[in-house]
Structure formats: C-alpha cells, structure tokens
Amino acid sequence: MDEQVDRLVKKTWGKFQKLPRSKRLMIAVSGIPGSGKTTLASVVARRLNDLHHEHFPALAQNDELAAFVPMDGYHLSRAQLDAMPDPTTAHARRGAAFTFDARSFLDLVKKLRQPISPETKTLYAPSFDHAQKDPVNDDIPIHPEARILIFEGNYLSLGTGAPEWKEAAELMDELWFVEVEEDVARERLVKRHIKAGIAKDEEEARKRADENDLVNGREIVQNRLSVHEVIKSKHDGSWKPENQGMETADVSREA
Fold it and tell me: What H or E segment, with its residue span, contains residue 221?
C-alpha cells in the first residue's frame, strides 16, 4: 500500500501547492463496506500532515493542514430510526443510504466550500460513538487552517437515491473509490462485527454482512459516479487489524 499512498499523497500535495489561499482542496474517498476506505483516507491525511511539518518544522504539532472527516457521524440516531414508518426494517438496514442524514452532510460540505477569510470560524462534524451506537454532534473540529479535507464514507460517489449525495460529490475536487472483491469484504466485515459486538458470533456476523452490508455495497458499485482514482484493495495475507481492512492497494487512474 505504501507505494500507492505515496503517489496519492504526492499528487494531492502538488495540487495543493497551486491552490489559492482562500480555497480548500476537498477529496471524497468511498467504497463498499469492508473495502478499506477508512484506512486509506486516514493514512493519506496523516501523511499529508507529516509532509506539511517537514516543510514547516516551526509549526506547532497540532497545526494540521489536512483533516480526516468520516461520514459515520451522519448515521441517523436510533431514535430517528424508531420514528420511521417501518422502524424494524430501518434498524435492520442501518448503514443503508436511507439511514444517513444526507442533507446535513451536504450542508457541511457547502459551508466548507465557501472561501476562507479572516472571519472563517471552526466548523464541526459529528462523530459516531460505537459504544452508545449513536452519533455525537459537533465532535470533529475542522479548523480554518485545515485546507485539505479528506472525506470518507460509503456513499460519497453515489449518483442515485437522495440527490444530496450526488450534489455533495459534485462539490468535491476529486472522488476516489476503493474497489474490493466481495468475498474479501465479507471476511473483513465478519471479523469487524464480532469485534465491535454488533454480532454475537460468526453466523450472525455473516448474516448481517450478506443481508445488509453487501446489499448496500452492490448499490454503491452499480450507481457509482465517474471517479478520479480507483484503488484496488486485495487480500494477500499482509493485513493487520490496526489497518482496519486495507491490505494492499493497487491504484489506477480511471478515464
């Protein structure tokens, strides 16, 4: 993965150098559940910050150029799912596109797309508390100094369904998509569901992966917009749990 991440970091850094000081570079990383998109997005953001500090060693350690913004905080809360016409299905399908607050995500993207000025304030994105199984409002700060934003989420290149997904995608400077074989994603998801306590055993975890996650994944693949980068995530035995599912990545430019 390192070689490919290095290329993406170098490309992003180069584009940033040409950016007016009033603008942000905004990249959305998407893929099916279990593809490794979270790892890719977080690693790219971290390496960009490392590069920034190499060029400007006098900066404070917490003065970060790149911010990683996951979409998990835009899950609808359990109370909101309870209020849906069919709450049983809503809870069973949690993670499907209709169980996210696409409108609020679009609102944040629009605010971040505004020119940066001396009056620009810190904006906040929600996070997700896996212990409580609900979002936490205003938990991820996005400071005016954060001029490269790496968004990550399943539906950030989705062209159908709620129009907010497509509109948000069109506001990004680049769309990256992480591809993975379905069998590889399934095995990652089974391990993840058991570890997170979402499923009590492997049988229950496989059922959730097959009846929810991978159903969502097929929608994501079939209705994907054209993207700038396709990252192919492969299973080669080098995966480690701390990598959250990204094993190796071969990157190809999509025309």
Answer: helix 214-222
